[in-house]
Amino acid sequence: MRPNRAISTSSLAFIDVMSCGLGAVILLFILLDFNRPSDDVISPDAPVVNEDEANSRMAQRRADLIQAAEREKNKIQGLVSAVSTAMIDGSEKAAQLELISRAPEPTRPENINLDRSASGELIGMQVKGSRILIAFDTSASMSNENLIDIIVGMSDPSGKRLGSGKKWLQAKRTLLWVIKNAPRNSQIQVLAYSDSVKPLTRGWVSPKDGLIKVRQELKTRFPKGGTSLGVMLEYIEEKSLAPDSIYLITDGLPTISGKKNSGLKGFKECFKLGSSQNAYIDGKCRKAMFVGAIKRFQKTSTSVVNVILLPLEGDPKAAPLYFGWASFTKGMLFSPARGWPPR
User: Fold this and answer.
1) Which domain covers residue 129, as residue numbers?
2) Which of 20, 122, 144, 324 could serve as 149's disulfide partner, Cβ 3.0–4.6 Å?
3) pTM over 0.70
4) Are residues 201 and 281 in the same domain?
């Protein structure tokens, strides 16, 4: 750690004092004018001056030089005094800042539980509705937060390396949390999606039956492939599922467009980038895929959309875009801490 240093609020520094001293010396040289002949030297063309008058001139000149030097001395002493005062003030302020920085942080009361999972609430978010659709992102990026860990995990063709990622384990707990906290008299349907859609329940089921089925499915399911939000939303439209609330568990913007290619007319480059399985999709294309997918969906949908957004490195536009979509539908966006929900 870098050592703490006192903070000086003065605009004066030691260099200012040295500059004033140098100015005084220069002024003395100007006044003395060593290149000028002394009054004691008699020029052949100079008028004859008696000794008393010459002594008087020399005395007057010495007096002027002494007064000039005295003025510069007083000026330097004033500057030194100002610098000393400023340094004292700065030291006092630095001491105050040091005390503030060492003050203990306020502690949260122990009787406050922000999760409140038993009541189905999560910092203001409730799982509610009579027909609740849960869209669960199972793309490869859901395995880990860091891109390097995702790339390394994709090198294992069995998928087990991605399946053991910390974020994937958190994502599965989050999915189960939503099902557990759904109203008992509601119906739920769970869709897993990446580049295609895979239902994890057989149509609309009770939360109890859905929990049993989803737990079985998650035992053999690993994250893989890209992310197509458009394909998932088009599936909801085509199957006429008509949920009154949607809970989307994902980690970022789509990397694959839907079948309708909505919103990509002005982005021909996106099709070139997406032609290869390992192609890189830039931020503009991902945003265009997202906007195109939800615009088409919102033409007919009346569902309230709630988004649980897990962290992903290198996707800064995801949070504001998903927040805007959730707010438009009167829903919420939540980004949980790494340890939530508890095991």
Assistant:
1) 121-334
2) 144
3) no
4) yes
